[in-house]
Design goal:
Oligomer: single chain
Number of strands: 10
Largest sheet: 7 strands, mixed
CATH superfamily: Vaccinia Virus protein VP39
Number of helices: 6
Number of domains: 1
Length: 230
Amino acid sequence: MTDEFEGRAGSAGSPWDFDYRERGRIWGDGPSELLKATLPLVRRAAAEKGRLRILDIDCGYGRDVAALIAEVDADVLAVDPSRVAVEMARAQLPADAGVEVRCCGYADVDEAEGPFDVVMVSALYQLLRPTDRGALREAVGRLLAPGGLLLLSAMSPHDPQHFGRGTPVEGEERSFVDATYIHFCDRRELLDDFAFLDVRELREVEAEEHQWTGVVHHHVWWVMVAGRAG
């Protein structure tokens, strides 16, 4: 495995600074597989509610934010622990776009800044240790508005690129450490983890990921849509 996932975490300060500085737009310019799969739902929410308040957790260099503001009226808070990624995101977004890009982790977003109509968590959950996954769920619980949507992607055990590679983590089913730690959730685990919300959709999506080197990875992602009662 490459070091493509190394160092992502929920608090400020990130070894990803090196990756973004050296490799730039690592995953290209288009939106994530999560946003591709769920953008119709975001459009529908905007049509029903008007201007949305959106939180993008671990936004990277802002590729999803750029796609979102091109599609819907929204005030967006985008957070990432990598200072280099935040600088890249700020540089590509118009100053009057209604977007704040902040160098911090999800745990640092204050409840008073919410609630948010949409919370996005793209390709982060599988990188978090059990305690951090719990902290993410706690953050979602306090920041998601009544009637709001959680949009989350996580790597499936059916992923052919990374599942089973490296050293199994003792005491953790479907967790491995190669260049870094990855945990692969199954359907039951995700349903249990987010049982405090109404899980409306949970499906696997196959996708090719075109890396900055020209190498193409084949991934299988869970895409989950969960709502909070209004």
